[in-house]
Amino acid sequence: METLRIDERTRLLVLTGAGVSAESGIATFRGSDGLWENHPIEQVASPEGFREDPALVWHFYSQRRAGAKDCQPNAGHLAISEWERRLGDRFLLATQNVDGLHRQAGNRRVVELHGNLFTTRCARCDRRPFEDRTEYPEGTVPRCDECGGRLRPHIVWFGEMLEPEDLFRVEQFMSEEGRLVFLAVGTSGAVWPAAGFVDEARELGGETWLVNADPAENGGSFHRFVRGKSGDVLPILLEFT
Ligand code: APR
User: Fold this and answer.
1) Does the global pTM surpass 0.85?
2) Are 239 and 84 in contact (CB under 8 A)?
3) What is the pLDDT of residues 36-93, one digit of tens each?
4) Residue 137 belongs to a domain with what CATH number?
5) What is the span of the domain harbouring residue 215?
6) What is the C-alpha to C-alpha distance for residues 186 and 184, in angstroms, rounded to an integer?
7) Where does ligand 1 bind, in terms of residues with CB under 6 Å?
8) How far is the CA of 120 from the centre of ligand 1 (A)?
9) Are residues 223 and 128 in the same domain?
């Protein structure tokens, strides 16, 4: 396998998707066991769906909380955490995952682009999002104890914008001095703006890698593609960096 070279000038930006958590037992979105299989995306992961049937949305996210709460980071997460330990502020992780496994694996320089499954916020007032691991009983919609409005998962739904400061942090990291290496892991490259990071990295002269179990929609944009499971491939790439 080709080696991912990291030297004293290298700045490593890692982007992860659901594939990096698959070996921890968390379903991906678009695989055959896809999470969306039994729920039309629009109904359970969109502002319209929440307006239409907030109890269904909370049932979907309560199920995901139940499914993720006992999962542990796998070898792929641990390799990514080791890269942060070695590189410090020359490392940044942008994840599309909301399962919290990267922090559990030890990463701290993490941008959770799509929010976090175990965080809730009020859909009406601007109280700060708060940690919430509750699996709400089917048919219920929790209310804000400050304004009485509906609470919602602190997740970026389809049709919603990512936090501008999250995107800025990624762009800022990519454009700083040094030898940029962009490594995408376990993502189908189907959802923007994350799917476009590879193009930005290339425009900045970065070396771009994809580690994925299957070819990705934006796979053609990467200099290197290593096909395989992240839990197998990342420890090998780490060993040679
Ligand atoms: N190792 C590496 N890659 C894997 C593994 C594995 N063990 N298992 C699955 N994969 C790959 C699949 O081949 C697939 O290309 O991971 C990718 C997962 O793709 P998706 O299910 O589309 O997940 P993701 O790319 O994270 O989706 C992006 O879309 O549904 C929205 O907001 C949601 O964050 C999500 C976003």
Assistant:
1) yes
2) no
3) 657 787 789 999 999 999 999 999 999 999 999 999 999 999 999 999 999 999 999 9
4) 3.30.1600.10
5) 4-26+72-114+162-240
6) 7
7) 17-19, 22-23, 28-31, 96, 114, 186-188, 190-191, 212-214, 216, 229-230
8) 24
9) no
